Amino acid sequence: MSEFVQERHREPFPLDRPRELILACPPMKSNVNLSRIVRAAGCCGLRRLICCGHARILPEIARDTGPDLAIELHRTLPPVLKRLKAEGYPLIGLEQTSDSRCIWEFAFPRRCVLVIGHERLGIEEEVLRLLDAVVEIPVYGLPHAHNAATAAAMALYEYCRQYPRG
């Protein structure tokens, strides 16, 4: 019979190359949600996260994301997304829309921007018009959508599943 010994806080899984996914968040209602998103981004090895509005990251929730995750603060999201799109980044929204695709059936481009929606309002109309694709996470009960931070973590995991080595 095997004996399992719990290991805590292993060294990060090595990546063959830096992640090319940028995470973009609108002004969020909750600093707790934003801080949870920052923590998930750090755990997934992201190098760049864009926050908007009066973002305040709570260190007790975001924990030790380390120096590899550059967190940028901007007033609003549309100008930043337009610039990234001009640089050749496909813009992928995480939202429920009439044309959204199930995240399980979506092949993320390795180099892209994942746009998260506001907790209550989702992705604003001006940003939706900029997107190249929209993915949604299936919901099997109520409420009709996942929490923004939970959905962001699930989408980051799916991206990492598709590109496990970076």
Give an overview of the whole structure.
Helices cover 27% and strands 17% of the residues. It is of the alpha/beta class. Strands 3-2-1-6-4-7-5 form a seven-stranded parallel β-sheet. The longest helix is centred in the C-terminal third of the chain and has 15 residues, at 148-162. The radius of gyration is 16 Å and the shape is globular.
Essential attributes:
166 residues; alpha/beta; seven-stranded parallel sheet; 27% helix
In spatial order, strands of the major sheet run: 3-2-1-6-4-7-5
Biggest beta sheet summary: 7 strands, parallel
| Number of E-state strands | 7
Distance between the termini: 37 Å
Low-confidence stretches: none
Q: Quick one: overall form?
A: globular
Beta-strand portion reads 15-25%
Given the helix and strand composition, which structural class is it? alpha/beta
Helix content: 25-40%
Annotation field: number of helices? 5
Order of helices and strands: EHEHEHEEEHEH
Instruction: Quote the average pLDDT.
Output: 94
In short:
This protein has helices at 31-43, 59-62, 78-86, 125-128, 148-162, and strands spanning 21-24, 48-52, 70-74, 91-94, 101-102, 112-116, 133-136. The chain is α/β, with parallel strands linked by helices and 166 residues long.
What is the element layout, followed by pairings?
Blueprint: E1 21-24, H1 31-43, E2 48-52, H2 59-62, E3 70-74, H3 78-86, E4 91-94, E5 101-102, E6 112-116, H4 125-128, E7 133-136, H5 148-162
Parallel strand pairs: 1-2, 1-6, 2-3, 4-6, 4-7, 5-7
Helix pairs in contact: 1-5
